[in-house]
Amino acid sequence: xxxxxxxxxxxxxxxxxxxxxxxxxxxxxxxxxxxxxxxxxxxxxxxxxxxxxxxxxxxxxxxxxxxxxxxxxxxxxxxxxxxxxxxxxxxxxxxxxxxxxxxxxxxxxxxxxxxxxxxxxxxxxxxxxxxxxxxxxxxxxxxxxxxxxxxxxxxxxxxxxxxxxxxxxxxxxxxxxxxxxxxxxxxxxxxxxxxxxxxxxxxxxxxxxxxxxxxxxxxxxxxxxxxxxxxxxxxxxxxxxxxxxxxxxxxxxxxxxxxxxxxxxxxxxxxxxxxxxxxxxxxxxxxxxxxxxxx
Length: 295
Ligand code: ATR
Hints:
globular, disordered N terminus, binds 2'-monophosphoadenosine-5'-diphosphate
């Protein structure tokens, strides 16, 4: 799995020089070949003049623990964790940030020199920065609908509530999961659960799709007329063109629609900061990715 690292080491041995290995990072997932994270972190490293290697690591679904052990034993400094491992990885670290504790899932892992594994979750801050900075949409005082009740949604509830919407509604295909989440996060702000069909009584300024429906190109069974005139619709999935959710949003007259590419870049920037202590400028990286993925 880490043949490239061994190759680099043997090259250095053969050259007879004592070279310090570059700090190594990576993203673990399954599948992983289409991940944009290696490109994003390479661009961040170039921009901030940081010397590091960042590579995609494909891990079999039942092999996360051994993959983490192997990466750590080889001196790896940090990992991003993506589907389907975010919740499983939470169990395999020995210190959690408050954000990770809220999400019960991690997308960022830092290995320190004492051998500790520090787990964090930067998805929520990534979503909020994309919505508020790149799309200039203020959540304060707005009615927000969040679709889904899985791991992706769990990580963004508290960050949304911290923006002080007038109300957050969570709706999920399986109703009791949304109810459980709303109950759990009530201590952070005004949040309640509704079924998809009960949404018909409401109109929202911001609708965020955090379900896995777009990953399988499926539509969500949502009622009509549930958005205000200036509504913004956000799909946390990226790289799938206009997703069925965004098609629906446009057909319903949404004023602004976006996918999760900006969230991806922003969560990566926060991970980079955790590892390197340097904040990259995300806008040029996002612009470059849009040029590459949308022409
Ligand atoms: P993730 O970690 O990506 O959130 P997950 O925990 O498996 O993945 O959760 C997937 C979410 O997408 C769930 O909220 C799921 O709804 P259920 O709880 O009813 O299963 C939702 N989901 C997946 N496909 C969907 C579809 N076609 N329509 C509506 N919701 C869907």
